[in-house]
């Protein structure tokens, strides 16, 4: 029985996309031999909408285990726009279903984060055979303890914090480092602990600037001439926590505040008199070769997706559940975010060694 498998990568890229694609492909060739054909879809759902597809051969998947980025390219095609017919007059859902049909696909593998899973679920509800694979440096996909790309980004962010330590120490400065993570603070939490940050600020725990300043001053009094704050890009303070997201954004724009990080740095400098600097590694956290951990995880996830194809078990998202690779229904994953619980063991661990969250 011939099987045609379409694969796309959607949303922000991360290390481990190619390792996952390779894992899927190798496991498919191993299981199905000549009975499988793989179709690469370019630039995420945009390629599916516009029928930008290419026929792949097994050699296309060689030499990509270690490479960052994605061999298929990626784009952000927001879920909320999927059902909206724009100026181009294209009915995107209809177009995606047509491409699936034209390409004679038996199933579609979507590698992506929360937005990608929402569209994957939509296509599954529309009758396509879809399997999602959990990618993101944010580690915020519901139902899986880990996503590929996360641990590589933790390593990169940790390296950044390590480097900031030496310069902060030499100059006796406060260094505020902004770590990616708009909604969830997993990356900041892990790298903050691994990098020995003195303060960790995440969206799940709104901060009180007075408490962050007090923590810096406590360190100076104890003879530590510098402090490192790891701040998630989506962080907000206790006053902003009372507001709706839109209202928060409006007030920030009016006050000319671009990021929480720059505001925290400014306020700490004003309140403590300590010289403060900001570091934003930004997209560096999404780049580079996947770590050994992510290569193994990506391979395990890819192999599991091939098993789901063999079992014709569609409408699921691959996941790590209780340390075992498994799957959740797409309908359960779509539309949810895995936040850091306020009482998370890692948060308590950090607090137990004196790291301040500003709460
Ligand atoms: O979703 C992953 C992520 O890295 C977030 O942490 C960040 O807010 C966002 O992507 C930035 O995305 P881009 O600049 O690619 O749109």
Please give the structural blueprint.
Elements lengths: L2 E7 L7 H16 L3 E6 L3 H5 L3 E4 L22 H4 L9 H11 L4 E6 L1 H12 L4 E5 L15 H22 L2 E6 L6 H9 L4 E3 L7 H13 L5 E6 L12 H10 L5 H13 L3 E4 L12 H19 L5 E6 L2 E6 H4 L11 H8 L7
Parallel strand pairs: 1-2, 1-4, 4-5, 5-10, 6-8, 6-9, 7-8
Antiparallel strand pairs: 2-3, 10-11
Helix pairs in contact: 1-11, 6-7, 8-10
Bound molecules: 6-O-phosphono-beta-D-fructofuranose.
Describe the structure in your own words.
The chain has 13 helices and eleven strands. Helix 1 (17-32) runs parallel beside helix 11 (292-310), helix 6 crosses helix 7 and helix 8 (209-221) packs across helix 10 (260-272). It has two domains: 3-148 and 290-333, Rossmann fold (3-Layer(aba) Sandwich), CATH 3.40.50.450; 152-286, Phosphofructokinase domain (Rossmann fold, 3-Layer(aba) Sandwich), CATH 3.40.50. The protein is 41% helix and 16% strand. The chain is α/β, with parallel strands linked by helices and 359 residues long. The termini are far apart. It has helices at residues 17-32, 45-49, 79-82, 92-102, 114-125, 150-171, 186-194, 209-221, 245-254, 260-272, 292-310, 330-333, 345-352; strands at residues 3-9, 36-41, 53-56, 107-112, 130-134, 174-179, 199-201, 227-232, 276-279, 316-321, 324-329. The model has no long low-confidence stretch (mean pLDDT 97). The strands form two sheets. It has a seven-stranded mixed β-sheet with strand order 3-2-1-4-5-10-11, sandwiched between helices. A four-stranded parallel β-sheet has the order 7-8-6-9, sandwiched between helices. Bound molecules: 6-O-phosphono-beta-D-fructofuranose. 6-O-phosphono-beta-D-fructofuranose binds next to loops. Residues 12, 76, 113, 136-138, 180-182, 233, 286 line the site of 6-O-phosphono-beta-D-fructofuranose.
């Amino acid at each position: 029985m011939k099987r045609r498998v379409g694969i796309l990568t959607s949303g922000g890229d991360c290390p481990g996309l190619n390792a996952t694609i390779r894992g899927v492909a190798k496991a498919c060739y191993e299981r199905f031999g000549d009975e499988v054909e793989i179709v690469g879809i370019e630039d995420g759902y945009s390629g599916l909408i516009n029928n930008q597809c290419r026929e792949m051969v097994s050699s296309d998947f060689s030499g990509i285990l270690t490479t960052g980025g994605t061999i298929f390219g990626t784009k952000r095609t927001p879920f909320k726009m999927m059902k909206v017919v724009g100026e181009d007059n294209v009915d995107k859902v209809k177009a995606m279903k047509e491409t699936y049909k034209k390409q004679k696909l038996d199933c579609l593998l979507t590698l992506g984060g929360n937005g990608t899973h929402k569209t994957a679920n939509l296509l599954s509800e529309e009758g396509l055979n879809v399997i999602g694979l959990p990618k993101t440096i944010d580690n915020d996909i519901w139902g899986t303890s880990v996503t590929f790309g996360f641990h590589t980004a933790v390593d990169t962010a940790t390296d950044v914090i390590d480097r900031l330590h030496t310069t902060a120490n030499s100059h006796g400065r406060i260094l505020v480092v902004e770590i990616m993570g708009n909604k969830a603070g997993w990356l900041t939490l892990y790298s903050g602990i691994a990098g020995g940050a003195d303060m960790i600020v995440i969206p799940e725990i709104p901060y009180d600037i007075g408490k962050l300043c007090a923590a810096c001053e406590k360190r100076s009094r104890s003879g530590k001439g510098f402090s490192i704050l790891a701040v998630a890009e989506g962080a907000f303070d206790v006053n902003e926590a009372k507001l709706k997201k839109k209202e928060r954004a409006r007030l920030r724009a009016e006050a000319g505040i671009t990021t929480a990080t720059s505001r925290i740095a400014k306020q700490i400098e004003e309140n403590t008199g300590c010289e403060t600097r900001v570091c934003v590694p930004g997209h560096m956290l999404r780049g580079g070769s996947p770590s050994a951990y992510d290569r193994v995880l990506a391979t395990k996830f890819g192999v599991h997706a091939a098993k789901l194809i063999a079992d014709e078990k569609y409408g699921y998202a691959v996941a790590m559940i209780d340390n075992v690779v498994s799957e959740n229904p797409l309908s359960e994953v779509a539309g949810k975010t895995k936040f850091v619980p306020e009482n998370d063991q890692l948060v308590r661990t950090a607090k137990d060694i004196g790291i301040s969250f500003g709460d």
